[in-house]
Design brief:
single chain, alpha+beta, Alpha-Beta Plaits, 3 domains, ten-stranded antiparallel sheet, eight-stranded mixed sheet, 33 strands, 35% strand
Length: 631
């Protein structure tokens, strides 16, 4: 079986909230989520970018059939194709704030918000490997296997980071129900005719290839628990560790009850728990659980590290005063990221486990003279009284030494939390945030280089049964000078047919033709794809309507196009130097390739090479023609 397409299908599940920036629209958020016709959309290019980034970690070199670079010459189309995904529901607002390292107060002008899709949301995704864009079966198997490896060995195991703010807890996802299907020409035809529903049986195992580059992944799971503080199990509790992180201002006065327990007076034991209630300061929720954002944990870790470095005599910049650009030499920036270098320490949002308990507390400011409530400063606020947050910290690095160095840094901060010296959340000076940290051992998921792979040479031999000729480019001529004359005007009509344009061009060029090209006008009555490229003159009676058409001679070109002012034409031809209206130009020859794509709107142009003869006036190109064409 000759593979035409490999299709991967899966369900993408969010382990944390997701932020994917979209176009500005009527919203109060600083960073809007991507909506298409009001539907939240996970854009395919974002999915592909995340997959290519993970592939580059574990594969070097990456085949040009996956991601090409201009340094290789003419860019190639990628064989990886990612489809947009949509979901139900609506985005929610998530607030963010910068905290000053010296005072732990809010920094000026560093308050922002973004729209996010809540954790637990599911997306149906599909990824394709189009074998028509590979040069050999070896390159096709490599492109297919690398994508399978990324999906099965990383994304399915929770190392899928999408959108913005992954280091601060957003965009952590994993795949479920991952399947792979290989389609040959017959099954591909059936799949397309069924509306892309009918697929052949899934492969028994997802096709993967072994890594060609080493990379290090380390994961630390820890529980941050709030509740009664009992340092000795056989002694009574010393106090109560509470927790508070506020939501966006738009949600601060309404508290969802969620699926936990709420403290109530003894006389209210039979009262029915409301779905939500009013308060002055609510507790941030994600679904039915209180939320500890990754940013609320990342900040204390960085601040504690910065304090230790300053105490050791090493200068550390506060990013709130540097517009996040602390510089490449900053020790905290090297660990937690800068504007130009992403952080290698990623912290996921944590939702409280079940059996959490919260309360609505009534508070007031006390008058220092009378010891009574100070004027109208009475308020209420929600605090978490008991709950456990399962936090996950991930580290990635190019070498084991770099990964170990970052792991030791995190261990020092976690040890502070275990001793009770690293509060998180808000109201740290009022009894909130002083939870107990219990860390588990690090999980090591390092990727080791297993094999070497070299890209196929150019041009590569055509594999049996597959039509992918890769002819060499036509040798270009040296740059020269030429005198050209330009003539343009109106055709006196609003519509252009291919036959009429052919007759006018033949009269203007004198029958000397290398090739012609056209862009057909949309016509839903056409039953078969029209020819849009040819080497012989079209028939004068050809009724195909076109928006643009060009006829190329060896040293001249005639073009016509529909415009808002009617159809117009232009003719550029080389003439002797002494003729009137002649302009001196420099001639540049540029080779190009006909890829021979099968498109729904036109017949296949066939494969081959062409040599463009371009006329340049100064820094601008006046026009071009096709001077040679070879099959």
């Amino acid at each position: 079986m000759i593979t035409k397409l490999t299709l991967f299908t899966a369900t993408l599940v969010q382990d944390s909230a997701l932020s994917v920036s979209g176009l500005d629209r009527e919203t109060s958020a600083d960073q809007a989520f991507t909506l298409v016709d009001g539907v939240p959309t996970l854009v395919g290019r974002g999915l592909k970018g995340a997959a290519v980034a993970m592939a580059k970690r574990c594969f070097d070199p990456l085949p040009r059939a996956i991601s090409d670079d201009i340094r290789h010459g003419a860019l190639r189309r990628s064989a990886w194709e990612f489809v947009d995904a949509v979901t139900d529901g609506a985005p929610r607002l998530r607030a963010g704030v910068g905290i000053r390292q010296k005072t732990s107060a809010r920094a000026e002008r560093v308050l922002y918000d973004r729209e996010v899709i809540p954790a637990g949301t599911k997306w149906q995704v599909s990824f394709r490997v189009d074998w028509s864009h590979v040069r050999s079966d070896d390159e096709g198997r490599e492109a297919e296997g690398i994508l399978g490896y990324v999906l099965a060995e990383h994304w399915a195991k929770g190392r899928c980071w999408l959108g913005g703010g992954a280091a601060r807890g957003l965009g952590w996802c994993h795949l479920e129900d991952l399947k792979a299907h290989r389609l040959d020409a017959a099954s591909y035809e059936s799949w397309v005719k069924s509306g892309r529903i009918l697929l052949p049986a899934a492969l028994g195992d997802v096709p993967v290839v072994e890594p060609t580059r080493s990379w290090c992944f380390r994961t630390l799971d820890l529980d941050i628990a709030f509740g009664e503080y009992t340092p000795e199990s056989d002694e009574p509790a010393w106090g109560l560790d509470m927790f508070a992180v506020g939501p966006h201002d738009a949600e601060r006065t309404v508290q969802p009850a969620g699926d936990g327990q709420w403290a109530a007076p003894a006389w209210a034991t039979d009262a029915k728990k409301p779905a939500e209630f009013s308060t002055d300061r609510a507790l941030l929720m994600d679904g039915g659980h209180p939320l500890l954002p990754g940013a609320s944990l990342r900040g204390p870790l960085r601040h504690a590290f910065s304090r230790a470095e300053r105490a050791a005599g090493r200068p550390v910049a506060d990013p709130n005063f540097k517009q996040e650009d602390v510089g490449a030499d900053d020790v905290a920036g090297q660990a937690f990221g800068t504007v130009s270098a992403s952080s290698r320490i990623l912290i996921r949002d944590a939702r409280a486990e079940k059996d959490w308990v919260a309360a609505k507390l009534h508070m007031h400011a006390e008058d220092e003279f009378s010891a009574s409530s100070y004027r109208n400063a009475k308020r209420d606020a929600v605090r978490l009284l008991r709950g456990v947050f399962p936090v996950r910290i991930a580290i990635e690095a190019e070498t084991p030494e770099a990964a170990d160095r970052l792991a030791r840094l995190v261990d020092r901060q976690v040890a502070l939390g275990a001793l009770g010296h690293l509060p998180v959340g808000g109201h740290k000076t009022r009894g909130a945030g002083w939870g107990v940290w219990r860390a588990k051992p690090w999980a090591v998921d390092d990727v080791g280089k297993v094999r070497d792979w070299k890209p196929p040479s150019e041009p590569t031999a055509e594999p049996p049964g597959r039509k992918h000729p890769t002819p060499r480019f036509i040798e270009r001529s040296a740059q020269a000078d030429a005198w050209v004359r330009t003539e343009y005007g109106a055709l006196g009509t609003t519509a252009i047919t291919l036959g009429e344009a052919s007759a006018l061009a033949r009269a203007a060029l004198g029958g000397d033709l290398v090739a012609w090209w056209c862009d057909p006008t949309i016509d839903l009555a056409l039953a078969s794809p029209p020819a849009t490229f040819g080497r012989d003159w079209p028939q004068d009676g050809d009724a195909l309507q076109v928006d643009e058409v060009a006829f190329y001679a060896a040293h001249a070109v005639w073009r016509a196009a529909r415009t808002s002012g009617g159809a117009r034409f232009v003719r550029i031809e080389e003439v002797p130097e002494h003729e009137d209206g002649a302009t001196r130009t420099s001639v540049v020859h540029t080779p190009a390739r006909l890829h021979g794509f099968s498109r729904f709107s036109s017949a296949n142009t066939g494969d081959g090479n062409v040599l463009l003869r371009e006329w340049h006036v100064g820094d601008e190109m006046l026009g071009f023609t096709l001077t040679k064409e070879q099959r």
